[in-house]
Design brief:
The structure holds 2 protein chains of 2 kinds.
Chain A lengths: L5 H13 L6 H12 L5 H9 L5 H6 L2
Chain B lengths: L2 E11 L2 E7 L10 E5 L6 H13 L10 H5 L11 E10 L2 E10 L4 E7 L8 E3 L5 H6 L2 H7 E3 L4 H4 L5 H9 L2 H21 L8 H85 L7 H16 L4 H12 L16 H10 L6 H13 L10 H32 L4 H27 L3 H7 L7 H19 L2 H41 L6 E4 L3 E3 L7 H17 L7 E4 L7 H14 L3 E5 L17 E9 L4 E5 L2 H9 L3
Parallel strand pairs in B: 3-12, 3-13, 8-11, 11-12
Antiparallel strand pairs in B: 1-2, 1-4, 4-5, 5-6, 6-7, 9-10, 13-14
Helix pairs in contact in B: 1-4, 7-17, 8-13, 8-14, 8-16, 17-18, 18-19
Classes of the chains: A mainly alpha, B alpha/beta.
């Protein structure tokens, strides 16, 4: 089991915060761990994508 | 990942007929420090090269291990040998793995075998079958970081420009985030393909967008391929430059040995000639004395002495002789020559008898008599001197033959233009690298001003092509109703990009700080520091940094790099202290064992002062010596600390 380097963990936290996606933090961390171990299911990627929250203005204005 | 080097074994490779070097103790535990003392010319470079091939798995690739190079590994002791094998026993995590590198000297090919069971010979499979995780990590440039040549530290700073950054990406798995990035893009594609067309766009319009996007994506892919191709070409050419430089180094090493041999033979000849001169002088001196010539002369002289004594020569016997000759009552009145002694003859003898033995003659005979008085105590020295002289001449002939043979060897080995040719080749390769880099810059340029100046369009440049893709991608998203999914996926990609670039920068910053702290400790000064880790290391005041200082920075960097990485690798280093100053050596000798769990050092006796000797009193160190018995022309091995130290003390 790969343990992510603290710097990478911190960067995940920072990046999801900047994109206002804190909700996916744990899920994304797990996905990255699995990707690093070359042991992941493609559905996991779709799940993380689906859990991303679109900003309100984007939802209103379209693309 | 934890990798340990347990054992290496050579069979029929250059100087090595059959040799095993074990890095474990009686309990099969790896020694934290192993010192392998190998004087120049005993195969240190060979070992490092082969270890690199074992770790990087590229020996069966002509690009990395040419047939000419493979053939050069054929044994020197048996030119008819057709195959050689380098075997390495590793412990990867908890599994024992044997990697066999077999070289066919006739065909110039190399082949790997892997055995993953603890009993060697069982389960031996063709190929380099380490798991994908390890293989993706152990690229040639990465392997060079932990199978390290102390004399080539400059390369971390200069030649392999992307070594530092790539090493961080590999070691901390940041490269794998790129795979995830690509997968997300694939998911967007799949989603769009599976969505039915029910938007305001007409079928024809959608088809046009798809076609255009497809074209841009195809060109983008081609540009990426071209970029990879150019990068590979640059890498290959740089590898070739490095290989040529290694060849020149090896060539110099051989040349140096030959030169020493010629010099030593010439010196021997000079000494033998002097011995012959001395010997000849002594022969001439002794030749004047007959008793020194041989035993039969001594015997004859001894006989003469006895006779002279019994005949009471010279005076008394002479007088008696003539008196008896003239006495009519003695003998038959004839001379000893048989003639009759008549009156006239007798008168003549009587008159002349005193003339035959004058006083001077008598004194000569007396001198002879006196000289041969103690003759029995003398021994003839001349035969021995002549024998020695003959042996010296034989020895001289042998040495002259040897010198002739060495000169022929030198003439056949040494191509007067060798260095010039190689340097010319390096320059050509450097020009090619420059040209490829210019082409690469056109593809990768992203500065808007430069793009405008160069008048590039989206078909020639990745950045511009990507902008085109984004434009049509957006249109397609609108047309297919996958906008939300695409937007979410793009957000995830952006997050991943930030994680990757942010982590890389932070890791670089952390490694830089650690490198600088260690450098300060080693060099005991704070004006030589790593300013930045970009693709390679950028050193403050780079131009004034000596070779030893560069090496110190390299050690500080490498140890900082591996320190917190998820991988625990052995650090194998050749000539670690060569260019270091004595004070720096002591620091490095203290520091290196602290930084790596397994340290394997290939060392020369020249590295004894302040470095090698620092390990003498250290616990858990394995001392080994590999040297060449020049008389038997074979490689010998000893693994006792006592021998190591004596050999070290005596300068090899």
């Amino acid at each position: 089991m790969v343990e992510l380097h603290p710097i990478i963990k911190k960067q995940i936290e920072k990046s999801v915060y900047n994109e206002k996606q804190e909700a996916i933090k744990n899920e994304l961390e797990k996905l990255i761990e699995n990707v690093i171990e070359l042991n992941y299911d493609e559905q996991d990627i779709i799940d993380v994508i689906n859990h991303i929250q679109l900003p309100k203005e984007d939802e209103k204005d379209g693309y | 990942m934890d990798i340990r080097l347990l054992e290496i074994e050579y069979k029929n490779i250059r100087e090595f007929e059959d040799l095993k070097i074990d890095f474990t103790n009686d309990n099969s535990k790896v020694y934290p420090v192993s010192l392998v003392q190998m004087p120049t010319g005993t195969g240190k470079t060979t070992t490092i090269q082969l270890l690199r091939y074992v770790f990087n798995g590229r020996a069966n690739n002509e690009k990395f291990f040419s047939s000419e190079k493979i053939k050069s590994f054929s044994p020197q002791f048996d030119t008819n040998s057709t195959k050689g094998e380098f075997k390495v026993k590793l412990k990867i995590e908890k599994e024992i793995v044997h990697v066999f590198l077999e070289m066919d000297y006739n065909n110039g090919t190399a082949r790997y075998y892997t055995s993953k069971v603890s009993e060697e010979g069982g389960g031996k499979e063709t190929g380099y079958n380490l798991n994908i995780d390890i293989r993706s990590l152990l690229t040639p440039s990465f392997v060079e970081l932990f199978v390290f040549d102390g004399e080539k530290a400059q390369e971390i700073i200069d030649i392999t420009e992307d070594t530092a950054e790539n090493a961080i990406k590999f070691l901390y798995y940041l490269d794998r985030l790129k795979h995830l990035h690509d997968k997300i893009e694939k998911k967007i594609e799949e989603k769009r393909e599976s969505t039915s067309v029910t938007t305001t766009q007409t079928e024809q319009g959608l088809s046009q967008i798809k076609t255009r996007l497809k074209k841009r994506r195809r060109i983008y892919k081609e540009l990426q391929q071209e970029k990879t191709k150019l990068e590979d070409l640059i890498k290959d050419k740089k590898f070739k430059i490095k290989e040529i430089k290694d060849e020149v180094d090896e060539y110099d090493e051989i040349d140096e040995d030959l030169r020493k041999e010629i010099l030593s033979t010439k010196n021997d000849i000079k000494n033998i000639n002097q011995d012959i001169k001395d010997n000849t002088k002594e022969i001439l001196t002794n030749f004047r004395n007959p008793i020194h010539i041989n035993t039969s002369i001594i015997n004859r002289l001894e006989d003469l002495r006895t006779k002279m004594r019994s005949l009471k020569l010279p005076r008394s016997t002479a007088k008696e002789f003539f008196e008896e000759l003239l006495d009519e009552n003695i003998g038959d009145n004839k001379c000893i020559c048989g003639r009759k002694l008549d009156k006239e003859n007798k008168k003549y003898i009587k008159e002349k008898m005193n003339d035959f033995l004058s006083a001077q003659q008598i004194s000569i005979i007396n001198a002879v008599k006196s000289s041969i008085r103690n003759i029995s105590d003398e021994k003839p020295v001349l035969p021995e001197l002549v024998y020695d002289g003959k042996e010296m001449r034989k020895k001289l002939n042998k040495k002259q033959d040897e010198l002739g043979r060495l000169r022929v060897k030198r003439n056949s080995d040494i191509d007067e233009d060798y260095r010039e040719k190689k340097e010319k080749k390096i320059e050509e390769l450097k020009d090619e690298v420059k040209e490829k880099k210019q082409l690469l810059e056109l593809i990768t340029e992203s500065d808007p001003n430069e793009l405008e100046d160069l008048r590039l369009n989206w078909k020639d440049n990745l950045y511009l092509c990507k902008k085109e893709i984004d434009k049509f991608d957006k249109k397609l998203g609108e047309a297919t109703g996958t906008i939300d999914f695409t937007k979410k996926a793009r957000i995830l990609k952006r997050i991943l990009d930030n994680i990757q670039t942010g982590s890389l920068e932070k890791l670089k910053e952390e490694i830089k700080e650690k490198t600088n702290n260690k450098t300060k400790r080693i060099l005991n000064r704070d004006d030589i520091l790593v300013e930045k880790i970009s693709k390679s290391l950028e050193i403050e005041g780079h131009t004034g940094v000596s070779e030893g200082q560069t090496l110190s920075i390299a050690y500080a960097f490498l140890s900082s790099l591996f320190e917190k990485s998820p991988h625990n690798l052995p650090f194998i280093v050749d000539t670690p202290a060569g260019p270091l100053d004595l004070e720096v050596r002591a620091e490095v000798a203290e520091l290196l064992p602290e930084l790596f769990d397994q340290l394997v050092i290939f060392i020369t006796s020249a590295e004894k002062p302040s470095f090698g000797e620092k390990f003498y009193d250290r616990k858990n160190v394995r001392f080994m010596t590999v040297w060449k018995d020049k008389q038997k022309n074979e490689i010998r091995f000893d693994d006792t600390p006592k021998f190591f130290k004596e050999f070290h003390e005596n300068g090899g």
